[in-house]
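User: For a benchmark we're assembling, each entry needs the component sequences followed by a predicted structure for the full assembly. Here are entry 17's components. Please fill in the structure.
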Amino acid sequence: MLPTPKKYFVTAAAAEGATKLNAFDNALLAARIGNINLIRVSSILPPGTEYEPNLVFPPGSLVPTAYGYIISDVPGELIAAAVGVGISRESFGVIMEFSGKCTEAEARAKIEGMIREAFDRRKMEVIEMKIAAVEHRVVHIGCALAAVPLWY
Amino acid sequence: MLPTPKKYFVTAAAAEGATKLNAFDNALLAARIGNINLIRVSSILPPGTEYEPNLVFPPGSLVPTAYGYIISDVPGELIAAAVGVGISRESFGVIMEFSGKCTEAEARAKIEGMIREAFDRRKMEVIEMKIAAVEHRVVHIGCALAAVPLWY
Amino acid sequence: MLPTPKKYFVTAAAAEGATKLNAFDNALLAARIGNINLIRVSSILPPGTEYEPNLVFPPGSLVPTAYGYIISDVPGELIAAAVGVGISRESFGVIMEFSGKCTEAEARAKIEGMIREAFDRRKMEVIEMKIAAVEHRVVHIGCALAAVPLWY
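Assistant: Structure for entry 17:
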């Protein structure tokens, strides 16, 4: 089987770029995950995974990552992205991501609600949430991105 | 290289949720793949992969999975998702996924046609198809999902 | 951790199909990556990765791949896809992908600009670019696809 991740952090950032993909790339760089190969996952924190906010990845590594983002080319538009990790006392956690045309505070509130529903549905109790969120006012082409990289 | 999967099953389920991502999460739970990290793949059944309908995954595992889904927030709308695995006698198989605003029967028929074309194009013969399909009438926010998890 | 890839090539192809997913599947076959499980990555060439244009993958392998594609069911529409790998002298490279309703030449030019911006932003120098691009005039349902498979 593929090795199950053991560490994580949460990050969010925004950036402009000359194209949509460059805006995304620049937001990844600003979020400290620009020089790796993100493999998108959907979205459980394995039991016992440790929070390590200063993780550094070897360039080009394959990094399982839950993320949400929004790219806009409408100048003046407000965009936001948020991720959250809901942590249980003894078992696995749940990761939620959100992006939309709203404020950072609204994105954060949305994530909290999503995590609560995910835990309710699993009849589990949330003892902590780690949330990262960002908002960005588009100048030309902007990207707001939030991510939970999982690592070893 | 990444280890090639050796087992699989097919699953389909639908659910409502308070948000689109929660509807997706709840459909994953209903399909028995809610507490893992899906890595989306596109979409071949490796040679010799065995069908194991009762697979249980350790929480948080990275699970290569072919899947299709549709999320709707239009009350009353009928949505459906289907996956199918076309199996050959001695070689690899082909996985197809579909989702749309239609019945389960229509989604299933669509998958059969897709698998036949995939085998024709490869000049291979289908000896069996395993299909999972589901339809759902949206109440508030609903998700129909069908998946082929691959495992070890 | 997941093993970091060591080899790559670039490929692009287009095809028609009876459905959108079959058009995609047929384009993958034409690009020589149709009988594997693509895991989509975003998008760095690990340091030291070697270019091997004749790579053959065991069927069903999990292959980390950066790719872009466009599917159209508008007869007569011109679609194109391109990928590019920007290579540095001593460090990692950057992969960019693009697809749109344009010519192959336009897609190629777009990729070059994207790679230049990605290197500028990282204060790195591009010493070489490998680009694969394709254009396709849609007959019924067509897919143009470009990919950078990473391997071991």
